[in-house]
Amino acid sequence: MEFKRTQRQHFFTILNFLLLSWLWYSFFTSETLTEKVIGVLCGAWAAVIAYNYLRARNLGHIDSDGLTFERLFRTVSFKWDELQWASMGEDRRALVFAYRHQSDVKDRYVGCSRKALTPDAIDAIVAAVNAARPNLPSGPPEADKNGATS
User: Fold this and answer.
1) What's the Cα-to-Cα distance from 108 to each of 41, 84, 105, 132, rounded to whole Å?
2) Contacting residues for 13 by C-beta, under 8 A, at least 6 apart
3) Is the pTM higher than 0.70?
4) What distance in Å separates the CA atoms of residue 146 and residue 71, rounded to the nearest whole number?
5) If you write DSSP's letter for every residue of the chain in order, what string do you get?
6) What are phi and psi of 116, to 5 degrees?
């Protein structure tokens, strides 16, 4: 299953790009150095937005091996057996996963905001994680020892 952007996300991404491009042109064609610097910053921001929009058509996908998230400059993926813990409760603002590749010494973390995903995608991720790893902890093991809540 692939996680796609919602229509609202498409709209606001394109609107944000257009506004920043207009600001870039407006500031860059001005006379003062300060406005030119602001124009260059707006242009760089617009370029990053366009790059992200074109590079990561999907936000990620689930397959039989694991989970993949498409990020701005890289793709983060892990297999189900590499998953150490996952915080996916309804009360959480984000889905957070800790995974460890075979060559890693420490856990790596990846998170995804609930606002970025559709409810169907969230349900599919939670169901896939629970099916692949039914007894997976909801937080780091050391949280039980020091009284921290996950």
Assistant:
1) 31, 9, 9, 19
2) 5, 49, 52, 53
3) yes
4) 32
5) -EEEPPHHHHHHHHHHHHHHHHHHHHHHTSSSHHHHHHHHHHHHHHHHHHHHHHH-SEEEEE-SSEEEEE-SS-EEEEEGGGEEEEE--TT-SEEEEEE--TT-SS-EEEEEETTTS-HHHHHHHHHHHHHH-TT--SS-THHHHHT---
6) -75, -20
Q: For 62-76, how does the pLDDT look when each residue is reduced to its tens digit (9 = 90+)? A: 999 999 998 878 889
End-to-end CA distance of the chain: 28
Other C-beta atoms within 10 Å of 16: how many? Answer: 14
